[in-house]
Every structure is written in structure tokens, then in C-alpha cells.
Amino acid sequence: MSISIVFLGTPVFSVPCLKALLSAGDIQVLGVITQPDRPAGRGQRLTPPPVKILAESAHLPVFQPKSLRRDNDLLNWLRQQQPDFLVTIAFGQILSQEVLDIPKKGTVNVHASLLPEYRGPNPIQKAIVDGKTETGLTTMLTDIGVDTGDMLLKTVVPITPDLNAQELHDMLSEAAGPLLLDTLRGLADGSIRPEPQDPAQATHAPKAQKEDALIDWSQPAQRLHDRIRGQQPWPGAVTWLDGQPVKILRSRVAEALSSQDEPGRVLETTADGLMVQTGQGALLLLDVQPAGKRVMNARDWANGALRDRTDIRFEMPGRTLNV
Questions:
Q1: Among residues 80, 121, 195, 239, which one has the fewest Cβ atoms lying within 10 Å of its Cβ?
Q2: Strand extents, DSSP E, 159-227
Q3: pTM value?
């Protein structure tokens, strides 16, 4: 039995799902809807989204509406196609009820959390920042709410202690294709029964802000480590020294120390990096990027820029972030 779908997705996260659909013999992809080309890079060159590049290489019809709900020509095209399903993954626009009413069997969304936990636009980073040891993917039937529709299938992905958000993003992206295929086939043959979400268990993952990068050294070392790895590559993690920003790219929670030094004070340079006092325990900085410099090992940076200095203390947040 062939299943007809129209695919809605935009960034690189969506690409493995579209690849899986194109490789499936029982799935017919009628077309792809994605976001408009955007300026990117230092030259701000107009750049197509990754999903568009794949779709065009597969000779699929590609549509790039500024607003799907207001594009009457595209809405008419969708009605004419009569797809069994719309499939969305990181599309970037909220669908209206008019759009949701078009597919014969519903709209299936792939969300990067174990719903109802972490509804919203930033579930991958939030899971790491919150110190979770596992997260995953949920397929759901989209309704007019934000990630509130009935759940279909889930897959669990472990979060190891040093995994960062970019690495978790890639793992979830690769796992999404097989889960989506199982979902569409299960809905088509009636073997999947949608499960309502429990609103009482719902949590939210809001969009990250630039100000989230600021490091507050009064927090415990474990929480800071989770924030540093959870906010890669954006907004990152930034501290200040001598009025200049220093980005922290990798860290490790150090063995418990008895030091009573102020949070933010540099304790020592080790074979692996730079040890810094926190509100609870110590944090070992592994990779840093000082203002105007390349990314470097924190030990090498300290041996150069901080050599012969004593009583070094990173500044607490409070200044405007502009890095």
C-alpha cells in the first residue's frame, strides 16, 4: 500500500527524514515545502535551506512560502494533491487549522523530546542544560496547539555526561527517519493508537537567548558544565576577564576541592586545562576562545596570556553581551 505525503521541513536536522522517505518504496513524496532562501555567512549570500537542496536533487516540486497559511495558490495545490499525510519536522512555521484539514489522514510531526516534556522550539539544548540523562524523539498528530497533539511513537536516546547539544542534535536527526517511517506505516495499517498527552506533565523549552551565554560562577560546577555543553554552538558560554569576553567551549566537572575561594577565581593550571572555583566544586576549562583569537586548549592559553599572573578571577555577569 503506497502512502502519499507532502514534506515540510527546513534545516539540516530535517534532511535525514526526507532521505528516509525518498528511499522507502511504499512512500510517495508529492512535494516539499520549506522556508525561503536566507542570507548566510560573512558575505550574507542568499543561501537555500538544506531541505531544498535535497528536494531539488530528487527532482521534487519545491515551494518556499513566506507564510503557508496566506499562500492561496499553494493551499490550492495541496488540496489538489490530496495527500494521505503532511509530514513536518523543524519546518519553522505554525500551521493553521485550514492547512491541518487538508491531508486525508492527518499531519505527523517529529519532535525532538519525549513529549509532553519540553514542548517548544528548543528541546535539545534544554535537555542537556537541565542535566537530563536521556531524551528522545516523539511523533505526534499535529493539532492547533504548540506540540500538544496526540503522541504516536517514541524513541529514547541517552545523554552521556560530556555530550554537547550539537552532538545530540546529530544523533536525534539520524534517529528520526526510521521512527517516522514506522509511524506512517503504523497509522496507515491501523496498528498505532494515538495517545493523548497529559498537560499536567508538560514542560516548555523556550528559544535560547543571547544573554543565556553569560556564565554565573556562583552556580555549582555540574550546572555550569551542563550549560556549557548544552549551549553549543549557540548561544555558547561566555565569561569575562579584564573586561574582555572569553568563550568556553568544553569543560569537565573536577574532583571535589576544599577551596573556599570566591566563585570565578582561577585555582590552578593542570595538565588538561584551567581549574576554576564555582559556587559548589570546581570546573576544569578544556577549550576556550579569547576575544579575537582562535579556539585553543585552556592550558595553552593560560600558560601564555596568564603566565606569571596571580589572583586571577573571572568576572561575574552583569555587562552587556556583545561577542
A1: 80
A2: none
A3: 0.95
